[in-house]
Inverse folding.
């Protein structure tokens, strides 16, 4: 594992928070709130999900209250998923700031759909894309 193992519950916790933030962006139309989420995505993509703000919150406030982890996953797929989330957040920010009017909510909605899949069902769409790309690359 390139970046060490990640408690599988951590990225899912982050997806719950991400889903809440992105839903709030869609309801409020706040580009500033989307910018805050973009920063979270950027830290997760650059430093890894364990070092992201949501990863830190999970490690400090949630994980100590849970039983020991039963499973770990490679950190690379969730990190790639953060990069994909960052891409959609940047596109959404461009839409909110520059237009067209539909672009911000559409990009935010795509990111929300992916985050919700992970939060509700434990299915990380970005992680699956990462694995497909790895297989395709050989």
């Amino acid at each position: 594992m390139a970046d060490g193992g990640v408690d599988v519950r951590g990225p899912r916790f982050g997806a719950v928070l991400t889903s809440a933030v992105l839903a709030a962006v869609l309801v409020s139309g706040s580009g500033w709130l989307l910018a805050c989420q973009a920063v979270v995505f950027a830290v997760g993509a650059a430093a890894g999900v364990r070092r992201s703000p949501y990863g830190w919150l999970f490690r400090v406030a949630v994980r100590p209250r849970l039983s020991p982890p039963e499973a770990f996953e490679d950190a690379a797929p969730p990190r790639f998923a953060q990069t994909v989330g960052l891409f959609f957040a940047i596109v959404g920010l461009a839409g909110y700031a520059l237009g067209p009017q539909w672009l911000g909510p559409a990009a935010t909605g795509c990111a929300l759909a992916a985050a919700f899949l992970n939060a509700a069902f434990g299915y990380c769409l970005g992680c699956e894309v990462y694995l497909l790309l790895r297989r395709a690359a050989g």
